[in-house]
Amino acid sequence: MDYIIRPMQDRDIPQAIEIDREVFPTQWPHPTYASLKHELRNRLARYIVVVKQNETEPEAAEQNTGNKSLWERLLQLKHLFDHDRFFGEEMPPHPKEYIIGITGFWVMVNEAHITTIAVRDAYRRQGIGEWLLVSLIDMATQLKARMITLEVRVSNKEAQSLYKKYGFQKVGVRRGYYSDNGEDAVLMSTDTITSASFQSHFQQLKQGHRHRWGELYS
What we know:
Strand content: 15-25%
Oligomer: single chain
Low-confidence stretches: 60-68, 75-91
Mean pLDDT: 86
Order of helices and strands: EHHEHHEEHEHEEH
Strand order of the largest sheet: 1-2-3-4-5-7-6
CATH superfamily: Gcn5-related N-acetyltransferase (GNAT)
Number of strands: 7
Number of domains: 1
Structural class: alpha+beta
CATH class: Alpha Beta
Radius of gyration: 19 Å
CATH architecture: 3-Layer(aba) Sandwich
Helix content: 25-40%
């Protein structure tokens, strides 16, 4: 398959950070290697990535022109030092697989709370974000979550439309939630995801996504 979806691993963290900074450039604070590594070991958290196999990262092509990615420059700088005093824990080599999308959520009691859904700009509007959401709902159901919640910027109408399609409803507003510009967040929540009505609608949407974006599954 050209695309696979799987749990995030430590080797995916550098690219997950790249995606976060690309998709949410004004967000603060950004996740760090240490914070994401901690999340992957948090029994309440789950993270998923979409991998495009046999894809060469853009930075790899730039090496022949003398241009280095920020990641590569940081690693070169790090090797000038004899220990990790200035950089913290040693980070793994940049992975070969190309990560194009990530999502994460926490499960607390019977609620799954989405912390992020992000897809590289070059792969938007190709069904990737929806695929991540479908996979997240499947996983939350398997983990016996009763409902799923999230916050989304009031200005992000595209994301709100996708969430509404999958049964999320506006249940409140968090004023000044985003620290970069003080924008409000819309709080959205599903009904009971294990109910027959929700699962019937969800399975129809899931099949519709597979039919429309079959190349992701083939």
